[in-house]
Design brief:
With 290 residues, the protein is of the alpha+beta class. Helix content is 39%, strand content 27%. It is built from 5 helices and 12 strands.
């Protein structure tokens, strides 16, 4: 029992009772000056002020939060608009380039209105050593067949060698398997365009089987001969950079730099029809006498 009077709970109870007695005594002596009421009132006022401050701050926070959400929403809208404008810019330049190509092709059509074109995109490259060859996204369903000439607005780049329903494999003029009858515009020297792996690395090809005394000069333009009926005549190919002799295969040749950078092709046009397609030219008697 004695230990209870010395414990902390007893001391707390004693303190509270003492305070209450002093409060009662004070209210008896000073009935008109109730400091308890004033204290409660003071505490209430301070509490109200605190709550008002808290609500005010929370309102500011909510305002800032709403502004942040609005800014994020506006930013997303602006990003979408920027992306749309970028796409339009890309489409504009692609269309501009395509129109330029079509304008040049229209010039070809004016010279030979029998030409029929199919536009195609390059969708893949050859997985062989001859990496100049490529795959396009048009095939037999689009009227393309093996042997069709493949061109750009800058010139002849190759021919179709394999066809499926919706794609085709193109062998380019840089390929060692390429065999195209060609002719020099000025000299009228005839030859066969056939690639070479060493020249292909530099984007060049060769006009093989020219005569030892060939009149071909540097800068001369080489075009398709059209004799075999595979390709239209006079499709421009490139220009001669030099002539030389192949000791291994024993023939003279002219190095030809194509007008079109074949390794950077993204789109091409396939000539799937033209006048005299498939018809082999036969020299007449007067030509033979000459």
């Amino acid at each position: 029992m004695r230990s209870f009077f010395k414990s902390a709970p007893f001391k707390l109870i004693l303190t509270v009772v003492t305070v209450l007695l002093l409060v009662l005594l004070y209210t008896k002596i000073f009935p008109d000056n109730n400091f308890i009421e004033n204290g409660i009132s003071y505490i209430t006022v301070q509490f109200q002020r605190g709550m008002a401050w808290l609500f005010d701050k929370s309102g500011d926070y909510m305002h800032v939060f709403r502004e942040k959400e609005e800014l994020q929403s506006e930013n997303e809208i602006l990003q979408r608009e920027i992306s749309r404008l970028r796409d339009k810019t890309i489409d504009y330049y692609n269309l501009k380039e395509e129109n330029k190509s079509l304008k040049n092709l229209y010039g070809m059509k004016e010279k030979d209105d029998s030409l029929k074109f199919v536009r195609s995109d390059v969708i893949g490259k050859s997985d062989t050593l001859d990496s100049s060859n490529f795959i396009i996204d048009r095939g037999s369903d689009d009227g393309i067949s093996v042997g069709d000439a493949v061109i750009t607005d800058k010139g002849f780049v190759g021919s179709v060698c394999k066809v499926s329903a919706c794609s085709s494999y193109v062998r380019t003029i840089l390929s060692a398997d390429c065999k195209v009858g060609v002719i020099g515009v000025e000299s009228r020297e005839e030859g066969v365009l056939m690639g070479n792996l060493n020249f292909s690395k530099d984007g060049l090809t060769r006009m093989a089987f020219i005569s030892a005394q060939s009149p071909i000069k540097n800068g001369e333009i080489i075009v398709t001969g059209g004799i075999g009926g595979m390709y239209p005549k006079n499709l421009k190919i490139g220009k001669v950079t030099k002539t030389s002799y192949d000791e291994h295969d024993s023939f003279y040749y002219a190095v030809v730099e194509p007008f079109q950078n074949i390794k950077e092709l993204k789109s091409v046009y396939v000539i799937n029809d033209f006048e005299n397609k498939g018809k082999i030219e036969i020299l007449n008697s007067s030509d033979t006498e000459k």
